[in-house]
Amino acid sequence: MLEVIYLIFNEGYTATAGDDWMRPALCEDALRLGRIVAELVPREPEVHGLVALMEIQQSRAAARVGPSGSRCCCWSKTAPAGISCSSIVDSPRWTEP
Predict the structure, then answer these.
(1) Which of 27, 38, 41, 47 has its C-alpha lying 20 to 30 A from 56's C-alpha?
(2) CB under 8 Å to 75, separation ≥6 — which residues?
(3) Per residue of the chain (97 residues), what is the pLDDT tens digit?
(4) One-character DSSP codes across the chain
(5) Could you give phi then psi for residue 75, rounded to 5 degrees?
(6) Could you please report the per-residue DSSP string of 46-62?
(7) Phi/psi of residue 65, each to 5°?
(8) 18-51: string of b/e by CB count within 10 Å (b at 16+)?
(9) Among the listed residues 67, 63, 69, 70, the one whose alpha carbon sits nearest the alpha carbon of residue 84
């Protein structure tokens, strides 16, 4: 069951099909299911580990999209290594490697 919950979360975090880069509703549903399972079996460490993993990943979701909601350039397959998206790194201290 935990594998299915994580698959749902992953499909929301990085959609494999369709026009949307992310599907936040799927992430929220997977987190909700994970929390429910954690309440039902509070002594199962794997459940709590899965919920923690999904929470950590979800905390970074806003950094994965630009201001318009489109894929951030640093997640693009064409962005050169070491180049960061200006919508995330917008600091005068930032220098190119």
Answers:
(1) 41
(2) 64, 85
(3) 999 999 999 999 988 888 888 899 999 999 999 999 999 999 999 999 999 999 999 998 877 776 666 666 554 544 555 555 554 445 444 455 5
(4) -HHHHHHHHHHHHS-SSSS-S--HHHHHHHHHHHHHHHHHSTT-HHHHHHHHHHHHHHHTGGGGB-TTSSBPGGGSTTSPTTPPPTTT---TT----
(5) -100, 0
(6) HHHHHHHHHHHHHHTGG
(7) -125, 150
(8) eeebbbeebbeebbebbeebbeeeeeeeebbebb
(9) 63
Question: Is the torsion defined by CA of 71, 3, 29, 26 positive or negative?
Answer: positive
For the chain, the residue count is: 97
Give CA–CA dist 49/1, Å, rounded: 14
Using alpha carbons, select from 74, 63, 69, 54 the residue that is nearest to residue 10: 54
Amino acid at 69: G
